[in-house]
Structure formats: C-alpha cells, structure tokens
C-alpha cells in the first residue's frame, strides 16, 4: 500500500514536472512572439520614416559623414606620428650605431603621490668619448667600429669666388655647402670610389659625385674648403658614389685631419659598427651593450641603435620635435572629437525633435515606448552606419593630405598598410555607436508619455525652455569657463595657455546647453530692430523666433562653435606673434645683418666685421636651446627654451633687451646668464642668485644671474654668453652677425671685410633677425591649416547641415503662412531676416566666448590685449554668413512646387 502510494506520488510529481516545463515553454513562446513583433513593428516604422523624412535624414547623414571622416583622418595622422622614426641614410651601411642618449630626465614627488619622472629630448647632439670606439671594436661579433664626425664645410673651386661679391651678397656666390666626414666613415653609408684613390694626406680629399657635378670638378682638381677658420686649398684625390638618394653633398678627409678641423678631438658624434658575417642584429646589440658604459653602473648612458632606430643618430632632435608636436596634435584631436560629437548630437536631436508630433501620435494610437525607441534607434543606426562607412573612406585622402603637411625630411610620417584600416574603422565604429544613444535620449520626452497625454502632445508647440538638469549643467560649465579664464590671468606660459583653452571649451559646451535661453535673450535684443526694419516680414521673423527658442538655439550653437574655435586658434597665435614682433623691433639697434649658409658663419666673420671701417659695434648671435627642470604643484616638468648666445661687450650697440636689473656687461664667461623678468618671477630668482639649467647637450650648469630684462617674448627667456654655449652645440657657428654702423653707410666696407668668407650676405637688419623664433615655420603653418582650415571647414559644414535641417522641418509652417495670406516674397524675406538674426547672434556670442579666454591669455602672457587681424575676422564673418545663408535659404528656395516658397506654389 505504502509502496503503491509512493509510486503514485512519484508519478504525480513526474507528471506535474512535465506539465510545469510545458507551461514554461508555452509562456516563453508568447514572450518571444512579442519581441519578434516589436522588432517587426520597429523595422516597419523605421523604413517608412526614412522614406518620409529623406531631407531631414540627409542633413544628418552629411554631418555624420563629415564627422567620421574628420575623426578618422586625425586618428590616421596621430597614429602615423606615433610610429614616425628619422630616416636611415648616412648609416644605411652600418649594422649598428652607438650614440649618446638624447633624453634627459627629472624626478619629483607630487603632492600625496609617488615620485614621477619627466623626460625631454635634448636639442643638441650628445657626443661620445673617443675611447668608446676601441671598446665597441672589441665587442664580440664586431668586424669594425668607426668614429663618425660631421663638420659643415663651404666648398669653392680654387680661384673662383675669391673676390668681393656684388649687390647684397658677400663673397663666393659660387660656393656650395657640404658635410665633411672621414674616409673611414664612408663605409657606413656606404660610399665607394668611382675614380681616383682615397685621401692619404691632410691636403687630399675625396668628393662625392653630386658635389663634383655641382662645382664642375674632378680628380686632380683643386678645391677651396673653409671649415671654421681660414679657407684652404685641397687636391681632389678621388670621386665617390653611393646608391643612396638624397642627403647632403659630402667631402671626405683623412680621419686624423677631420678630427683636427672638427674642433672636439676628445669626442665623436657617433660610432658606426659593422658586424661579422652571420651575426644577428639582436646578438650584436647585446654584445655592444655589454661592452659599453651603462647608467646602471653609474656611467653616462649610451644607446645601441639597430634597424630603423639608426636614423636617430643622424637626426638627434627629430624625436624631440615629435614629442613637442604630439601634445599639440593630441589637443587638436580632442577638440575635433568634442566638436564632432557636439555636431552629431545637435543634428540628430534636431531631426528627432522635428518628429515629436509624429511620435506622440504613434504613442497615442497604441505604439509602445519600446517600439518607438527601437524605431528611432533603427533609423539613426541605418543613417549613421552608412555615413560612417562613407566617412571612413573619405578619411584616407584627408589623412594623407594632413600627413603631407606635417611630414619633414628629419621626420617623415610612415603609412603602414594596416594604419588606414585601423584608423578609419575606429572612427566609423565610434560615430555609429554614438548616434543611437543620442537619438533615443532625444526622443525620451515623447516615448515615455502615456497614450492620453501623448494625444495632447501631438499638436502642442515645442517646449521653449530646456530641462532643469540641462540648465544647471550649462550654468555650471559657464561658471567654470569664466573661473578658468580668471585663473589664467594669474598664471603664465604653458599653464595660462592650458587654462585659457579649458575656459574656451567649457564656454562652448555651456552655450550648447543653454541655447534656448540664449536664443530668448537674442530675440529680445534683436527683435525690435528686426520689426522696425523688416515691416511685415520683420514682425513674422520676430514672432517665429520668439515662439521657437529651442529651434533658434540649435541654429545659433554651430555658429558659436565655429566662430569661437577659429577666433581662439587664430588670435592666440596672432597675439603672441604681434607681441614678439614689437619686442624684437624695440630691441633691435643694429642697422645691418650678416647672414651665411645654413651651417652658419665661421668664427672669424664677426671679428672681421668688427674691424671694418665705419662699424660701431658687431656681435655674433649663436642660437641653441636649454632645458629647465622645475615642478608645478609637485609634478615634474622639463621645458625646452630656445636661447641666444651673445658677445656682451658689443651687445649695447646692437641689441637692447631693456634691462630692468643688473648689468648686461657682466654677461661673460661660462657661468653667467640673463633671465627674462617673468621667468625670473616664476623661478623666484634675482640678480646674484643662481639658476640650474641643462645646456643643449645635457650638461648641467649652475649659472649666476647677472641681469633681468623685459623683452623675453622677442629675445627668449634666457640669454647666455656666446662662450658658454659654444662648447655645447653641434656646430659652434654664429647664425648671424648684428652690425651697428657709425653713420649708416658701412655696408660696402662690411662686404669687403667678408671677402674671405664664401656665402656671406649683407642686408638691412629686421626684427625677424633677432626674434628668438621665426615668425612662422612650415609646421606652424601646417597646424594652422589643420586646426583652422580642416576643423573650421567642418564646423561650417555643421552650420549648413543644422540650418538646412531646421528649414526642412518648417515646411508646414511656411505652407500655413501662405494659406493665411502671406505672400511668397514676405515669407522669403522673413526667412532672410531670421537667418541674419541667427548669424549676427552667433557671431556676437561666438566672439564673446572667444574674447573671455583670449583676454585672460593675452594679459597673463603678453601684458596686452588680444589681437586678430581685421581681415581674418572679416573673412570668418563672411564665411559664417555664406554658410548660414546656404543652410537656411537654399532648402526653402529649392524643391519647386513641393516647397512653400517655390515659384509654382
């Protein structure tokens, strides 16, 4: 009985379990059917909406495509810059190169953190002790180690160019600039003799084929070479050739003679290493590193370079230039990213808001929130997906164009096969993923309504005020932007620039969030003159703007964005350039300047000029750089500064840095320095105090401050005696000689004095000759083109897309106005006046947003007002007006009879 009961109970439980699983399966099927139904409904709504709103989604497609192309192009360029290495030319035949470490480090302990180390690249070549050549040669697997030095040399054919030049030039119009190397180092490129024999004595040289063709010389001929002393005649013992293209013309001397003319017999530029047969690059590197000094043992570190790294020994400052360019490009890339997301969000939000009535009606007739959200998300995903693909394709040519602007001979930017695909794919995915959440968020106010409430919302006007969260966020960002601008006025240099940039970014985002409030204020300010000047059309424009603050705010935002961004980018550089020009012009006392080849003027040129009749003062100017180690809020910083090396006893007659303390006549020897006032204030030093600097080759020095001066923007933060820099630069030659004439007529006498110096030129002095940096370099111009041209162009495209989208969404409004009696010309004029109001409001507000951080930056860094050339601002205003007109007016005029403003309406 009990067994039977147990069997029945077991059976019942079994049957009950089977029934429960069957019930679960039956319940799961309806849920799956519901989900499938939601997907089908959403897909149907999305397809119908895409067809019905082609023009609106076309504007979104255009903006999203441009955003994807821009992000992809910048990702392409940043990736290429990260991979960039100097080219291998001079050491193409070497298996390894031993060179000094061009990096310098500084460690400090930030507040409440572990110690951190900053790294910077030195601007001058770090040389090696000559004794390391033997140590490298003794390493296992090394067939030969060669000391390699390069010395600039001016070459003329003997008997040519010996007399005084004519016109503005000096002597030696037929001179050629070349590089002197030892014949032993010829194997490192490699060069091979094509005629003659190697140099055997100090009076013989081998010249390469390119130089031989340039000067018309061959084996057995005589050439005049000038290193850093008097010109000397040499016999051409041979001609050498190489398979390598490019590079400087080369003159080969005996190793002993080259060491003598190089001027640093105890050191070498680098050591080229040729490996034994069968030795791999990794094995050679390990062997050399074991044989050479190591910082871990307390020695000064040397680097063993193989493969593509060998180019770093040829261009020692190339990676330093890359490190300076990367943060700037990264900053612009961050701005691009912000601008792109803002444009995408603005256009998609406007497109969705225009459909609020349609979505509310669908909600009222029974569509679920999930169906509406899915439908909107599907629409945007399809548009953004297609735009991302097209934008990714367009990113490649745009990225290649930007790369061509930034690439230089010392640092060509590589393009590996995978880079375009990776950069464009990342940009496309980013844009596609960002679009859907923005659309769903923009539609949330309608999709979350109850059906009864949605029925009333279907015909309600758009809300004129932003939500509380949006308003509070905008107010906080505006306050943060103004506070950052205020903080910039109390700082200097890079800190002020960073604070000003942060202020501009905060204010631009604040304007985007507070757009409806700003539009309301703009309507109140511009509405009265609009009504008075425009008659009926002005009245209609004023009433339309007052009733649609959200729409007007969306139209103003992209104009504010482009105006503020372009003004900040252009005016910051113009302000600094103008201040530096003024200070350099005020400092210049010389009336003549002597310039020479790119390698500089030999040491005797300044002395020869000084001894010329009618010359009151002449000082050679040696350019180099120093590195300053300091900390900001405990964070270690290494800043590179260009500096001038001058001759103190000739300084007063040629250059006036406007000394405010101390005596520039004390700027002599190897242990003194003059410091700009602002930098001295930052370092808290005065006359008699000491400043620790690292010279261009990394040598740490402690210098006594002998003078403070005011014109640091024009002449640099530090000024050193020429003799303090001469032993720490790659080529200790003056880049120019400043000349002060007694009566202003010493030009001919100076030219005659320079007859023995081929390539010297004499001309009137200008402020650019003494400026610490040239007014504009090729890379500066490239960054302006990229920062202003590319991003500004994208922002203008965003203006066109946004205003086009708004105009397309107003077709029903235009039809209603025509129905109640407004003439076509009246409606068109109303649209023109509204567009003008939008352009004026955007220009005024964008200018204000730019002026706040620019004023803080200019006052803190230059002590003057910000400056933007009127022609540039006029061009910007014209571009904005044209873009606004194209975006707002063209959709209203186009479309023929389908448009309420068309001729056949």
From TrEMBL:
Specify where the region named Disordered lies, as residue ranges.
1-34
Identify the PANTHER family for this entry.
INNER MEMBRANE PROTEIN, MEMBRANE COMPONENT OF PREDICTED ABC SUPERFAMILY METABOLITE UPTAKE TRANSPORTER
Transmembrane residue ranges: 56-83, 325-345, 383-405, 417-435, 472-490, 496-519, 552-572, 782-809, 830-859, 871-893
Q: Which organism is it from?
A: Streptomyces sanglieri
Question: Can the keyword Lipoprotein be found in this entry's annotation?
Answer: no
Give residue spans, biased composition: Basic residues: 1-12
Membrane topology term reads: Multi-pass membrane protein
Q: Name one Pfam family in it.
A: FtsX
Protein name, please? ABC transporter permease
* InterPro entries, A to Z: ABC3_permease_C, Membrane_comp_ABC_pdt
* High-level lineage: Bacteria, Bacillati, Actinomycetota, Actinomycetes, Kitasatosporales
**Highest taxon above the source species:** Bacteria
Where in the sequence does UniProt note compositional bias of the Basic and acidic residues kind? 22-34
ABC3 transporter permease C-terminal domain segment(s): 333-445, 789-890
Presence of the UniProt keyword Transmembrane helix in the record? yes
């Amino acid at each position: 009985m009990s067994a039977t009961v147990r069997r029945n109970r077991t059976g019942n439980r079994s049957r009950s379990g089977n029934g429960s699983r069957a019930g679960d399966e039956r319940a799961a099927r309806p849920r799956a059917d519901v989900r499938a139904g939601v997907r089908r409904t959403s897909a149907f709504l999305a397809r119908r909406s895409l067809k019905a709103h082609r023009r609106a989604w076309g504007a979104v497609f255009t903006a999203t495509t441009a955003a994807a192309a821009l992000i992809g192009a910048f990702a392409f360029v940043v990736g290429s810059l990260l991979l960039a290495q100097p080219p291998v030319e001079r050491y193409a035949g070497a298996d390894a190169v031993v060179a000094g470490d061009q990096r310098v480090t500084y460690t400090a302990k930030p507040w409440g953190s572990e110690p951190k180390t900053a790294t910077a690249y030195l601007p001058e070549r770090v040389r090696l002790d000559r004794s390391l050549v033997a140590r490298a040669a003794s390493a296992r697997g090394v067939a030969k180690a060669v000391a390699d030095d390069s010395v600039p040399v001016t070459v003329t054919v003997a008997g040519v160019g010996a007399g005084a030049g004519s016109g503005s030039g000096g002597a030696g119009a037929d001179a050629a600039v070349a590089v002197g190397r030892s014949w032993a180092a010829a194997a490192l490129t490699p060069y091979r003799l094509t005629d003659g024999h190697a140099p055997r004595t100090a009076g013989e040289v081998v010249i390469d084929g390119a130089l031989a063709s340039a000067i018309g010389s061959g084996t057995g001929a005589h050439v005049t070479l000038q290193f850093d002393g008097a010109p000397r005649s040499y016999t051409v013992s041979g001609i050498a050739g190489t398979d390598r293209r490019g590079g400087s013309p080369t003159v080969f001397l005996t190793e002993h003679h080259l060491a003598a003319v190089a001027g640093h017999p105890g050191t070498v530029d680098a050591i080229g290493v040729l490996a034994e047969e069968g030795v791999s690059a990794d094995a050679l590197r390990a062997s050399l590193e074991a044989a050479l000094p190591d910082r871990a043992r307390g020695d000064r570190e040397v680097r063993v370079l193989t493969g593509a790294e060998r180019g770093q020994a040829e261009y020692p400052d190339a990676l330093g230039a890359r490190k300076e360019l990367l943060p700037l490009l990264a900053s612009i890339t961050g701005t691009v990213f912000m601008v792109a997301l803002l444009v995408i969000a603005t256009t998609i939000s406007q497109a969705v808001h225009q459909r609020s009535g349609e979505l509310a009606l669908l909600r009222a007739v029974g569509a679920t929130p999930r169906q509406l959200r899915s439908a909107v998300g599907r629409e945007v995903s399809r548009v953004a997906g297609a735009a991302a693909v097209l934008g990714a394709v367009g990113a490649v040519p745009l990225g290649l164009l930007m790369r061509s602007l930034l690439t230089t001979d010392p640092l060509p930017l590589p393009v590996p096969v995978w880079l375009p695909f990776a950069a464009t794919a990342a940009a496309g995915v980013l844009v596609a993923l960002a679009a859907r959440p923005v659309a769903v968020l923009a539609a949330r106010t309608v999709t979350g309504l109850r059906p009864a409430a949605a029925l009333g919302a279907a015909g309600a006007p758009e809300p004129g005020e932003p939500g509380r969260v949006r308003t509070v966020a905008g107010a906080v960002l505006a306050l943060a932007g103004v506070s950052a601008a205020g903080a910039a006025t109390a700082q200097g240099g890079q800190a002020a620039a960073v604070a000003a940039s942060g202020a501009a970014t905060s204010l631009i985002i604040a304007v985007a969030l507070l757009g409806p409030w700003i539009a309301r204020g703009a309507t109140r300010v511009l509405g009265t003159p609009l009504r008075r000047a425009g008659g009926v059309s002005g009245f209609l424009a004023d009433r339309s703007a007052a009733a649609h603050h959200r729409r007007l705010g969306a139209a103003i935002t992209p104009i504010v964005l482009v105006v503020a961004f372009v003004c900040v980018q252009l005016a910051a550089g113009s302000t600094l350039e103008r201040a530096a020009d003024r200070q350099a012009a005020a400092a210049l006392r010389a009336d003549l300047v002597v310039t020479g080849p790119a390698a500089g003027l030999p040491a005797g040129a300044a002395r020869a000029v000084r001894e010329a009749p009618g010359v009151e003062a002449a000082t050679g100017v040696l350019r180099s750089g120093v590195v300053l180690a300091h900390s900001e809020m405990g964070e270690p910083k290494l800043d590179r500064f260009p500096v001038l090396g001058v001759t103190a006893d000739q300084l007063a007659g040629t250059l006036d840095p406007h000394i405010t303390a101390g005596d520039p006549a004390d700027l002599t020897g190897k242990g003194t320095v003059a410091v700009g006032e602002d930098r001295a204030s930052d370092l808290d030093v005065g006359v008699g105090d000491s400043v620790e600097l690292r010279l261009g080759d990394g040598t740490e020095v402690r210098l006594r401050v002998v003078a403070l001066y005011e014109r640091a923007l024009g002449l640099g933060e530090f000024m050193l005696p020429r003799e303090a820099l001469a032993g720490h630069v790659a080529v200790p030659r003056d880049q120019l000689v400043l000349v002060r004439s007694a009566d202003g007529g010493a030009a001919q006498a100076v030219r005659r004095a320079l007859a023995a110096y081929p390539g010297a030129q004499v001309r009137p002095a200008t402020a650019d000759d003494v400026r610490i940096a040239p007014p504009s370099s090729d890379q500066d111009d490239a960054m302006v083109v990229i920062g202003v041209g590319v991003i500004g162009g994208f922002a203008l495209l965003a203006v066109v897309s946004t205003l086009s989208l708004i105009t397309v969404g107003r077709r029903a409004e235009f039809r209603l106005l025509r129905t109640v009696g407004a003439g076509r010309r009246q409606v068109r004029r109303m649209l023109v006046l509204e567009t003008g109001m939008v352009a004026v409001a955007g220009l005024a507000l964008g200018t204000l947003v730019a002026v706040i951080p620019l004023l803080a930056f200019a006052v803190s860094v230059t002590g003057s007002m910000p400056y933007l050339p009127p022609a540039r601002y006029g061009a910007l205003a014209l571009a904005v007006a044209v873009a606004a007109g194209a975006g707002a007016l063209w959709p209203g005029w186009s479309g023929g009879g389908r448009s309420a403003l068309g001729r056949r309406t």
